[in-house]
Every structure is written in C-alpha cells, then in structure tokens.
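Justification of resources, computational component.

The compute hours requested in this renewal are based largely on the per-chain cost of generating structure records like the one below. Each record pairs the submitted sequence with a full structure-token output. That output is archived, and it is also reused by downstream analysis tasks.
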Amino acid sequence: MTTTDPAVCLGGTPAFAQGIAGCSALLGENFGSALGKIFESLEWAEDEIEKVRARHRKHSDRLFHSFSLLTPTQQRMETEFVYRSHCRELLDRVAAGEDTRPGTAAEICCALLHVSQMSPMRSAAVGLYLRMWQVAGFPQWPELAEASANHEALEKSRIDDHERFARNQLKVTERRLTEITCAGKHHGEPVHCLYSRATAQLALDLD
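The structure output for this chain reads:
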C-alpha cells in the first residue's frame, strides 16, 4: 500500500452539510448513521495511532503513515473494543518490523464467533477463541481466564496449530506497507518527517 498524509478536512461548511443532505436523500435514511460510524471508526484508528506513536517514538513517522493498514475487515469491528484491538496489533507489528498481513487476534475472534453460530466448536477451537480473546485484550472475566487456562493445559499444541492456521487463513495479502511518501505535513502541520523527501521510499520485503 502506498500511503500519504492521512489528514482530511471535512465538515463545518454549508456546502458540506448540503452534500450530506443530498446523499441522505439519494441513498436513504440510514446514510447519515452509516457515515457517522465511519467517522467514529476513523477517530478510533487515529487515537490508536497516537497511542502507539507515544510508545514507539523511534518509529513515529512510519506509524503515522500506517493508517491505510487499519481498514476494518469484519462487520463486528463496528464495536469499538474490537476495532481498537485490531488496530493496536497491526500498529505494534509495524513498530516491530513484523508482517502485517496475517490475521489479528480480533479477526480470529470474529471468525470463530461466526463459526460458533453455525455449528458447535471442538475443544481446541474453543481454546483458540479463548486465547485470542485474551491476546486481543477484550473485556476480561475470571471465568474466561480460568477456562482458557484449562484448555491451554490440555491442548496447547493443538491450539498453537490452530492459531497458525487461522492467522494464515485470514491473511490480507495487500495489507502491507510498500512505499511511503509524505508532503511534509502531518494533519496539516509542517513536520520533519523521515519520508518527506520526494525520493523517500520504504520497502518492506515480507515475502
């Protein structure tokens, strides 16, 4: 993915309000609600970027330009804690120089929840779900932690295999940074960005 400054100036003008009203009339009464969810997700993603940049200042510029990696892949990412977890894992991978294509813990939880609604899951699959719930940092309950520990004690190696398989199956091939260009501004403010030179390029060979 080629990335540029993700800052976008929206709203605050009569023309913009007229445009929203026109789209709502054309696309239906749910358009405004859907648009609101999109903007809300953008805010969550930007917030997670800033938090990870604060933890990994050495890679701050690269993380700023990683916004394009944070596209939601599951409908349940409309839930804040699910989407934020997905963003955090991908951004932590960017900071560590790791492959951003394999499925995240949040993506695996979403996929397993879908499977569980169609048919009962076997014990090792339940163990994987509980492990990924913990890894994703989703809301915790003592019962979940205890159940996860029991499954890990009985079937850790099978859960390991299932995790490798799930992350590979949920891999998003195009979810990777190949080149970064920057206009020398972040959110409209001039910056000394590592990628602001016209010839600056980041090549990550993750194959």
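Confidence is low (pLDDT under 50) at residues 5-11, 198-207. Strands lie at 2-3, 179-180, 185-186, 189-190.
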